[in-house]
Amino acid sequence: MSKGGDVVGQIVKAYTFVVIWMGVSISVILFNKWLLAFSGFPFPITLTMWHMSFCSAVGFVCVRVLGITKSHNLSLRDYTQRVLPIGVLYAASLWLSNSAYLYLSVSFIQMTKSLMPGLVYACGVAWGTEQYEWSSAANMALIAFGVVVCALGEANLVMKGLVQQLVALVFEAARLTLVQILMAARGLAMNPLQSLYYVSPACFLCLLVPFFALEFRTILTSPPTFYPSVLLANALAAFALNLAVFLLIGKTSALTMNIAGVIKDWMLIFFSFYVFHAPVTRLNLFGYAFCCTGVGVYNYQKLQLLKKKALQKQKEADSSGKADMEGGRPLLANGGSNGKTEGSRD
């Protein structure tokens, strides 16, 4: 009974974190859309810089002051070689994805995010972290076809916003692959709080270039009407999302998070329709159903691959242990034999 109760408690706790993550993620996305497209603050670079400065400060307090998580104590060389390239890609991804909110509906943006598995897979194949397989490539083509159908069915499609969103996804896929190459593969894993501490300052520095080139003069000549409390609430929401991810890590499997992400995207489509009155056509939904099918097949393939690798490692460990045992038997036998011979000689 106690073991069963512990299992039920763990399941309830895990899915509570999933619900919290979904709720916070949906809130942040809708908040950003409202702030950029409807509140009179159409400055995505400035907003992203504000997020990064806030997250840098919070990350510093969490790591250096409160000691919630440890620091890796990276040297300047390691920071420049490992963290800064990731910061450049992350800054570009955040800037362009936030810019897309000015032109595209939340629902359509979520539909385009179905391309992420395919883009990450393509970057992995290009950089040698993934092996090319025709079945995976065909599945990615299915997802891409679904996104094309979504675009054809989009009632208010703006090409500038579409290009920004697609390029943002490419940068994000490259960032995820680069994290695997520069950090995870070298034993430098980071939780979300450590990422805030190390990556956010790099993002902030990288965003200074497009900020002064594109938004600084406009803000000086035509200052936007905004309330500091709104920006503070937006930054707190962004930090809460990172904290939700931090709490979620280790509580669920990657497959559960992917399924929850698909559910979250469907919820955002309907929230976008009811909150912002963004039109959603049948062709949109038909194309997104194609995307979800492709993502589901991709997750299944990844799960089977992980199981296969785990089984292979287990077999190798078993065979190694068996070889050690068999290799020890003659040694014991020889030892006994030698002991007998020496004893008989005496």
UniProtKB/TrEMBL annotation:
Q: Which UniProt keywords apply?
A: Membrane, Transmembrane, Transmembrane helix
Q: Does the keyword Nucleus apply?
A: no
Q: What is this protein called?
A: Sugar phosphate transporter domain-containing protein
Q: How does it sit in the membrane?
A: Multi-pass membrane protein
One of the record's GO cellular component terms: membrane
Does this entry carry the keyword Hydrolase? no
Location(s), subcellular: Membrane
